[in-house]
């Protein structure tokens, strides 16, 4: 169908769209189009649009039959991820971040807040600063494989990108296992493992994470199966020596420094899930050597069950997981 459209450059697309909408000239039943650096905004009154100073052209447009994506408003495909009802951007330029946030809000993307990463993950609690571009703050509820997690991303570390990896490990858990999650955060390993019938000891040094972990265990009906310890796992777990059938060590960059504690907590037959950030030339060697250096002198045989590259982390660096079984002969 031929429709009158206001033609402007892509860089002027969002302010022009907003201005047309304010004048009730935008035709919401037709699709916005982008071509050769120009954006074409369908209008309901060509004469009124011309009187307002816009160039109007006639062109074929499609009927709008679905949500309007941010790309239609921006003229390019923005990069963002969802966490609950928060949209997360990773933009270095504040003006570009603001444009994307405005387009997300004006589009049909459901959200209560849009935030932009304002710092790298840092500090003992591995948190970052955020610029809140839209909405009230940084709290949300994230749903993952049938479980709900209350999260404040300004207070705790959480990555939705690791959902598949967490599910892979959780699927290995059998009922009645005894599991130590050494760096539990808000509970994305601990809660679903407890839901599978395991008894979970969940540890974290961050008080905010511990509070959310307790809330999330209750929210998902597994509070009785999750014992929560606040503080350094090296100092809080003396009563659990030799207790664990499975141990999760998700603290990349630092987990290998806690292997002596993991071996102390391990029973006679225990699987350790060790996460690390390593160089792509030897992604698994450092972790395997570190496990052997601690476990073998303690009388364990070491068997690597799985070597897995979880994701790219930085140029020439990868986030990896080793599933390692340690067993006394």
From TrEMBL:
BP-aspect Gene Ontology terms: tRNA N1-guanine methylation
Annotated Pfam families: TRM5-TYW2_MTfase, Trm5_N, TYW2_N_2
Record's keyword terms, sorted: Cytoplasm, Methyltransferase, S-adenosyl-L-methionine, Transferase, tRNA processing
Listed GO MF terms: tRNA methyltransferase activity
Domain SAM-dependent methyltransferase TRM5/TYW2-type: from-to ranges: 80-328
CDD domains documented for this protein: AdoMet_MTases
Record-linked PROSITE patterns: SAM_MT_TRM5_TYW2
InterPro entries assigned to the protein according to its UniProt record, in alphabetical order: MeTrfase_TRM5/TYW2, SAM-dependent_MTases_sf, TRM5-TYW2-like_MTfase, TRM5/TYW2-like_N, Trm5a/b_N
Any one GO cellular component localisation term in the record: cytoplasm
Protein name (record): tRNA (Guanine37-N1)-methyltransferase
Native species: Halobaculum gomorrense
